Amino acid sequence: MIKKIYTIESGCFNPYQNMGLEEYLMYQAGEDECILYLWQNERTVVIGRNQNAWKECRTKELEADGGYLARRLSGGGAVFHDLGNLNFTFLARRCNYDVDKQTDVVLEAVKRLGLSACKSGRNDITINGCKFSGNAYYSTGDCCYHHGTILMHADQEQMEKYLHVSRQKLESKGVESVRSRVINLCDLMPELTKERMAVVLKEAFAGRYGLPVEPFPGERLEGGEIRSRAAAFASWEWKYGRQIPFSDEISRRFSWGEVQLALKADGGRISELILHTDALDTQLVTALTEALPGTQLTKAAVAEAFRQIPAQNRLQASMKDDLERLLGLLL
């Protein structure tokens, strides 16, 4: 049961420092606490944990303009951050982690501005059918977080400049471009500021949880550990990941997300496997990429390897079936 709720705002616009603090806070949330963390990144493309950086982002253009590429811990698709966007993160232990309740905070905050929003699809919050907030989720052990964007006056020209969205994904959304499926809240409320948005989020947080909001205690912030986590997010290895000289590659779009699968074969067995996807579920992808190397390149052997990996829910069961069939096309 939650007995204390805290808020903390970052005054830094560097994505690696902000994500380092986010990860640190996840482990700091006590058994009876929930933390609301508010933060902004400057000219940043943030890709999901299992995405291919080069396919999701025009990295040369971004870097030439002084921007940042960042990879988050959670799954989902690539998003563009600038100072016209406010990010939120709810951090709590698993026993107190409630995505619906946390989403209600965002919906109530927007309502306090006189706007009516609703949850749409697997992870979007929309107004009039247009997305202003994309959400993603992460957990490890007993620690969880739910984070998302709030587009206020984001630069949509830069969003289209740096994001490379596949035609399949746009067609699945029934739109022609990235810009046509998003909306800035300032389009509906020109006087909205980041400060006002932060205030209504905190008010809605207090109202939904029925508790007073307190500042997160500064003495619980360990600078050295936060800097160490930030350095890991800034590393080339984390941002870009490894590339393999693959033998075969195949891609598909499913109801749960888009997939690019690449494998390297050696001696009739899978020696390396990479799965790039914008799926929100990251656990099954990790399990598959760890379990399949060493498997014989036969449908029977691959099917048996898939059977050994348990599905924790209906989504994972669907993902397993689809990925097994997809890999089977390469055999």
Explain the overall architecture.
The protein is α+β, with helices and mostly antiparallel strands. It has 2 domains: about 5-240, Bira Bifunctional Protein, Domain 2 (BirA Bifunctional Protein, domain 2), CATH 3.30.930; about 250-330, Enolase-like, domain 1 (2-Layer Sandwich). About 35% of the residues lie in helices and about 25% in strands. It has 13 helices and 14 strands. It has helices at about 15-30, 55, 60-65, 100-110, 155-160, 165-175, 185-190, 195-210, 225-235, 235-240, 285-290, 300-305, 315-330, and strands at about 5-10, 35-40, 45, 70, 80, 85-95, 120, 125, 130-140, 145-150, 215, 250-255, 255-265, 270-275. The strands form 3 sheets. The protein has an 8-stranded mixed beta sheet, with helices on both faces. Strand 12 (about 250-255) and strand 13 form a beta hairpin.
